[in-house]
Amino acid sequence: MESLLQHLDRFSELLAVSRTAHVRTWDPVTVRRALQWARYLRHIHRRFGRHGPIRTALERRLHNQWRQEGVFGRGPVPGLASFQALGHCDVLLSLRLLENQALGDAARHHLVQQLFPGPGVPDADEETLQESLARLARCGSAVHMLRFNGYRKNLNLQEDSLMKTQADLLLERLQEVGKAEAEGPARFLSSLWERLPQNNFLKVIAVALLQPPLSPRPQEESEPSIHKTPGEGSQALVHWLLGNSEVFAAFCRALPAGLLTLVTSRHPALSPVYLGLLTDWGQRLHYDLQKGIWVGTESQDVPWEELHNRFQSLCQAPPPLKDKVLTALETCKAQDGDFEVPGLSIWTDLLLALRSGAFRKRQVLGLSPGLSSV
């Protein structure tokens, strides 16, 4: 086991060197041996992917390397941040060598021959190296866009072209990592949560949850067994949000009320958790007799206006979401004493405010006031 960990350390150093001017001294033999080393670690990934103790030890070593300073004083070695990355470490190495202008002509020519051996040359891999390179380039572009291009202000996020592009890239990447291993999407999303600007990442997730299912690429249409079913990327996002309560709370707090209503309408599994959060937020408020309003005791408490706007938006959603929201409010009101006068229960006041707003809206539209339903 120690020998395997040492191999991993040495390859991490090799991967760091591949981005420096040191590759100027590499010849074709060095390139071939480096690729052989990378393919050995890819074999390790395939062999021990289901072996818990070995995978855990490798994952821990990679995580420690990611947190430490790189061997050349330029920070951690990008790319090998997880066990999953070992599955395409030959692709990482090849891509970095191709991008490094210091690599000599003979070594570069040999690398290109390895990547594109020509027709008639057997390839035992399920995915050719050049296909992997193209896929990795797409993934790199997706992460780059998610990291650096999320600072435009647009109230209608779901119609913002840049946000939709980022969302599509995220969904595509989730499908790809989902094909590699069952836990891949959750690990990938958690790594993005740690590395990317979180406020923008939450917006991209929301827009992604509103996108139509991705269609398979032309080369995948004839092989339906190799890709996930359409919509799997959205399902992975929902599963990840539900499994990370702090992230989901930040998701609900950071996004506009209308956008969250659309998301919870599209994905019903999120609505009870969202309603639970709104209930918790409401229970933190108390009635200020002097001001005549509901206020929080701490600065991070959700103000009355925001709570009202979020419930109001949900009550404008089509059934069954609207019905669930009204039922939840009536239940909270009953549990709180079932008061009918304002100032005693926040749930009574919310229902009164929502009904008053609905009544005024019907008056403006020239409709009959009807019953007291929202």
Automatic annotation (TrEMBL):
GO CC list: chromatin; Fanconi anaemia nuclear complex; nucleoplasm
Primary site of residence: nucleus
Keywords, comma-separated and alphabetical: DNA damage, DNA repair, Nucleus
Any Pfam family hit: FANCF
Domain of life of the native organism: Eukaryota
Subcellular location: Nucleus
GO BP: interstrand cross-link repair
Function: DNA repair protein that may operate in a postreplication repair or a cell cycle checkpoint function. May be implicated in interstrand DNA cross-link repair and in the maintenance of normal chromosome stability.
Protein name: Fanconi anemia group F protein
Natural source organism: Papio anubis
